[in-house]
């Protein structure tokens, strides 16, 4: 489904990727494990088209990522990070507004699914009537997760999503994503992921994997 062919990427004198080759099948869960500064987040930026490799190709179902196809790539990817950027307003209004964006015009907002996800991530339904500015950092993260789940994209990139969450919240979120049939890239140095045997580990170390 996704193929990285001979990808090389450098920043100054630092090698991030050196003729990197990797194939990911639909539904696989990949854990990118490596030290901070080893280039794990650059991997996500490459897949989203925010970085261009020095050489090599990225293919999604045999379509090459370039300036002509980048919007189609992004339409199929949900990027979720610990720093959830949500505009001010009531939570329910923010969610409704996001579903009105042109890019999301084919997605229907299921209130039943929304209630189910609130329960799954240990949030009370009355949080929908709170302002974004009234939420704790953990609550804001969970609302970001829920929005991305509701958008139902094919590929998810989870970038340090467990940072700042308590153990119960971490487990509820990871369990949900792992059991899902989506293709998932997990970027994290959190040791909790060692507990999940069905993850494929891609060890990241100064441009080598």
TrEMBL record:
Gene3D superfamilies hit by this protein: P-loop containing nucleotide triphosphate hydrolases
SMART domains xrefs: AAA (SM00382)
Pfam families named in the record: ABC_tran
ABC transporter domain ranges (all copies): 2-209
Keywords associated with the record: ATP-binding, Nucleotide-binding, Transport
GO molecular function, one term: ATP hydrolysis activity
Keyword ATP-binding on entry: yes
Highest taxon of the lineage: Bacteria
InterPro entries named in the record: AAA+_ATPase (IPR003593), ABC_transporter-like_ATP-bd (IPR003439), ABC_transporter-like_CS (IPR017871), Metal_Ion_Import_ABC (IPR050153), P-loop_NTPase (IPR027417)
PANTHER family tied to this protein: METAL TRANSPORT SYSTEM ATP-BINDING PROTEIN TM_0124-RELATED
Family the entry assigns: Belongs to the ABC transporter superfamily.
Name used for this protein in its record: ATP-binding cassette domain-containing protein
Lineage start: Bacteria, Bacillati, Bacillota, Clostridia, Helicovermis
């Amino acid at each position: 489904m996704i193929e990285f062919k001979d990808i090389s990427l450098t920043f100054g004198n630092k090698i991030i990727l050196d003729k990197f080759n990797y194939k990911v099948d639909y539904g696989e869960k990949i854990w990118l494990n490596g030290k901070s500064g080893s280039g794990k987040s650059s991997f996500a930026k490459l897949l989203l088209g925010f970085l261009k490799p020095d050489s090599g190709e990225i293919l999604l179902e045999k379509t090459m990522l370039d300036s002509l196809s980048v919007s189609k790539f992004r339409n199929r990817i949900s990027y979720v990070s610990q720093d959830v950027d949500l505009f001010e307003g009531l939570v329910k209004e923010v969610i409704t507004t996001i579903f009105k964006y042109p890019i999301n015009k084919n997605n229907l907002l299921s209130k039943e699914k929304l209630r189910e996800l609130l329960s799954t991530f240990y949030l009370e339904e009355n949080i929908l009537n709170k302002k974004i500015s009234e939420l704790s950092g953990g609550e804001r993260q969970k609302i970001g997760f829920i929005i991305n789940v509701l958008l139902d994209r094919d590929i998810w990139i989870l970038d340090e999503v467990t940072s700042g969450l308590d153990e119960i919240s971490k487990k509820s979120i990871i369990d949900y994503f792992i059991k899902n049939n989506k293709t998932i890239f997990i970027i994290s140095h959190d040791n909790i992921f060692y507990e999940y045997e069905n993850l494929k580990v891609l060890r990241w170390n100064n441009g080598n994997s």
